[in-house]
Amino acid sequence: NNIVSKIESKVQNTMLPIAMKIDKQRHISAVKEGLSMTIPFTIIGGMFLILAQPPIDPTKVKGTNFFLQFMLSWHAWAAANQDIIMLPYNLTLGLLALYAVVGISYSLASKYKMDKINTSLASLFTFLVVSVKFVKGKMVTDNLGAAGLFTAILIGLLTVEISKLLKEKNIRINMPEQVPKMVSAPFESLIPTVVNVIVFMGINGLLGLAGTSIPNIMVSILTPILKASNSLPTILLLTFITLVLWFFGIHGDNVTSPIMTPITTANIALNAAAVAA
């Protein structure tokens, strides 16, 4: 017992400060909190995706009993109303990166005690400018779903940092004190928004000369990580680490979730997209 107590004490003294630092690091915390805000949308999108994809193949199954007749009727109804049923999915999991960039920037802005609404709207606009493209006059939104999630994380964090820097340097439109806050706040965020858009449009434009873009680079960098995260050894390792930390009295999920939440969220959305297709 003494040996176990000594080991437990040693692990707690070593790991607990690290776990607390990870949990309190504002950028990691903002990503975790921001992605948590997307949970209602993933649940709603998943529910309607299930509704639109009944688990039965009418070419292989006959309605020989009440249950199978019900399933076949469900399949026929879903096929006839596919566009309507899939609308909530397309507007939730299909646009997951939009909710993520708003949630992440909102969370980080609140930690800096900045204007949360206008800062997150500026991040959203910057993300749209970088991620949306037009082909023959038609808007392509491929990067607004799971494929754009890591771009959303990057822009959600960096746009807030740029806005914070400009605020500290007092580079903004200062309205008289008599002007109500709800009127002055949008004007105060105008210059940070313009700067963010110019910076990220400029970077995207330079990358465009090389035939790529910010979203494409993020996907190419993180695709190996996503593939690795899907492997059984990786899942077992992270689960083992989480449980060992719990065993020694440390909140294991708080340590591993900042790493796993972006990856698992992206994988859930990618799996849903595969089912929807």
Give the arrangement of secondary structure elements.
Elements: H1 2-24, H2 26-36, H3 39-52, H4 66-80, H5 82-90, H6 96-111, H7 116-131, E1 133-135, E2 138-140, H8 149-168, H9 181-188, H10 190-209, H11 214-229, H12 232-247, H13 252-276
Antiparallel strand pairs: 1-2
Helix pairs in contact: 1-13, 2-6, 2-13, 3-5, 3-13, 6-7, 6-8, 7-8, 7-10, 8-10, 12-13
What does this structure look like?
The protein is an all-alpha fold and 277 residues long. Helix content is 75%, strand content 2%. The chain is built from 13 helices and 2 strands, in the order H-H-H-H-H-H-H-E-E-H-H-H-H-H-H. The protein has a two-stranded antiparallel ribbon with strand order 1-2. Helix 7 crosses helix 8 and helix 12 runs antiparallel to helix 13. The chain starts with a helix and ends with a helix. The relative contact order is 0.13. The mean pLDDT is 88.
What oligomerization state is this entry in? single chain
Order of helices and strands: HHHHHHHEEHHHHHH
Q: What amount of the residues lies in strands?
A: under 5%
Give, in spatial order, the strands making up the sheet with the most strands. Answer: 1-2
Q: How many distinct beta strands? A: 2
Helix proportion: over 70%
Number of helices: 13
Give the low-pLDDT segments. none
